[in-house]
Design goal:
Layout (H helix, E strand, L loop, with lengths): L6 H4 L2 H4 L6 E2 L10 H4 L17 H11 L6 E4 L1 H13 L5 E6 L4 H9 L2 E6 L10 H7 L4 E7 L11 H14 L2 E5 L21 E6 L12 E5 L2 H15 L4 H11 L2 H25 L3 E2 L8 E2 L2 E2 L7 H10 L3 E2 L1 E2 L10 E4 L5 H17 L3
Parallel strand pairs: 1-12, 3-4, 3-5, 5-6, 6-7
Antiparallel strand pairs: 2-8, 7-8, 9-11, 10-14, 13-14
Amino acid sequence: MKYERMPIEIESPEEFGYDKIQYNLSESSVRDRTLSEVGIQLQDLVLLYGEHKGHRGLVEVIAKASGMAPSEVLVTFGAAEALFIIATTLLEKGDELVVVRPNYATNIFTPRAIQADIRYLDLTFEEQWLVDVDKLAALLTPRTKYVSITVPHNPTGQMLSEANLRRIVALVEKAGCRLLVDETYREMTFGGPLPCAASLSDRAISVSSLSKTYGIPGIRAGWLLCQDKALLETFLGAKEQIGICGSVVDEEIAFQALRQQDTWLPEITGRIQAAFRITRDWMAGEELMEWVEPKGGVVCFPRIKLDVPVDVDKFYRVLTEDFGTYLGPGHWFEQSRRHFRLGFGWPTLPELKGGLQGISAALRAAMT
């Protein structure tokens, strides 16, 4: 393994320092919750080794919400561990995979650390950041171990249709490879969620967590879903070698939180829609910016118009130093820095408005 730190983590707000940020528009989740908001009761929790596949009640809640059987669920230390387990199980040095880019950095950096051969399906602004299934099919070879996609897409917020998701499932079935679908934002789809990909085929693997939709990244609770019982057993073996089991504290909090999803999701959806309307109105009035309007999630990936004469490095510097606003610059996703990931779900509505005003002011301050 050849590990390398990811820019998105080196420059994350927690590493930069939350105390230096007034308007944090870099987050890719809803607002973080406190323990008191979740209403957790832990006083009688026994601090033993947990069940290796995960807290039994949590497994059952995840399975029910995903249309899967409890036996097809593996609880992990956040979605990040799930993605690591999948990559290190399915890939060896020199193996091939196909990755949609831009993508969540772990989906690219872990295969690179393994020294796998990555074939990229590069999405573009001009093509509305949409996955062209025919172009994806052309990248598959007999050496392809798996295809990696995110739906809704991070960082653009774009969607696949159910028909295209099923086409991609059919592609991997025909090719005899696997499909990894990062479904972290699945419940945030503006038009209603797609089926869980793992429920459609034993060649598909789904990954999600409590970090983004539910605003609980601090407990590190995620999961992967897979119908292939032999492969799931191998994934469990990887988890046991990494850490034996998850934290019983984290998994108990996750269980108590996820049981409240029917109550929380309407409230979460309402907050997201209010924030999205503010962002959409700002984009409509900001003549220096353009975007492909997101269809789900809590992030978008606008860009400074190509004909706008702006010193991009000065823009980010002024934005942070003079206007207290923090964004996810395009290089986090191996894209031009004229793009940035704008997270509209995490800040309060007044913070969001303040940050958007800061972007507009910093753009004009950095014009050449």
